[in-house]
Amino acid sequence: MRICYMYPGAKFKALTFSFDDGVVQDRKLIDIFNRNGLKGTFNLNTGLRRFRELSAQEIKEIYAGHEIACHGEYHPTFDQIPRSELMREVWHDREKLEAVSDTVITGLAYPNGSFSPEVMDILRHAGIEYARTTVACRKLRYMPEDFLAWHPTCHYRDALEFVDDFLSEKRPLPLLFYIWGHSYEFDRGVKNWQFMEYLAARLGGRDDIWYATNIEVCRYQKAIRALQFSTDGRRVYNPSAETVWFQVGWEGTPQAYSVAPGETVEIKEPLETY
Ligand SMILES: [Zn+2]
Fold first, then answer.
1. Which of 5, 60, 75, 193 could form an SS bridge with 111, CB 3.0 to 4.6 Å?
2. Which CATH architecture has domain 11-222?
């Protein structure tokens, strides 16, 4: 049986962004995102002044339509602080972000990129679903085995190396382009605001790309992994809370299926011919 998993809306490409430290430049970046139909995740430190100076209303307005996630209360290097303090750093950050956003916050980006198996364990106990590293995987066909060690494709300054491959891919392969950085980096150097405007214009506004936040990508991928097929492959049950999309058959006219949460769907394609 040949099954090819798709993103929501029967798309094969997903694009997501992750920006750290939550500074004033996020406003400008989100304006670029919104004009180009891009979605992103913004990792904030609730203990630092730049966050405390903003009201809950301002936070809601700035990040509307995007994901807010943790980045440690005071931006410590996770693997270099006492384990009990790490729990507090994450838990307090979640608590404060949830209080200002009225949402459930389960995403995180590692401050200074510091993580280890023990750190990942503590995050798991603190209710964190995924955590982004600063390790560039430099691949468009990568999904993490464990979402608590989720490597982005690249830093935004290297993004142009992957844009052509991402946009020109025509094969039915699910691609994920995951770009990270800090919005204050656009204030300096060659890869500045003009660069980001150019990048956003090239990647934005396309109907073959799913524009998603980090948590949306994570939950969708987990939902795909949780699909349960019958032994003959002709029936599939979706136990998750996400509608899941896939295509059966590579040649001829492959048929796209979507399976709603809790739904069981019959696969109608003559599977044995593939
Ligand atoms: Zn940071």
1. 75
2. Alpha-Beta Barrel (3.20)
Distance 71 CA to ligand 1 centre (A): 7
d(CA 16, CA 265): 29
Model pLDDT for residues 114-151, shown as the tens digit of each residue: 999 999 999 999 999 999 999 999 999 999 999 999 99
Q: What is the mean pLDDT of the chain?
A: 94
pTM, entire model: 0.95
Distance CA(101)–CA(104), nearest Å, equals: 8
Residues with CB under 5 A from ligand 1 (ion): 20-21, 111
* CA end-to-end distance (rounded Å), the chain: 6
CA of 1 to the centre of ligand 1 (A): 44
Inter-residue contact 8 to 30 (CB < 8 Å) = no
What does the domain layout of the chain look like in residue ranges?
11-222, 228-273
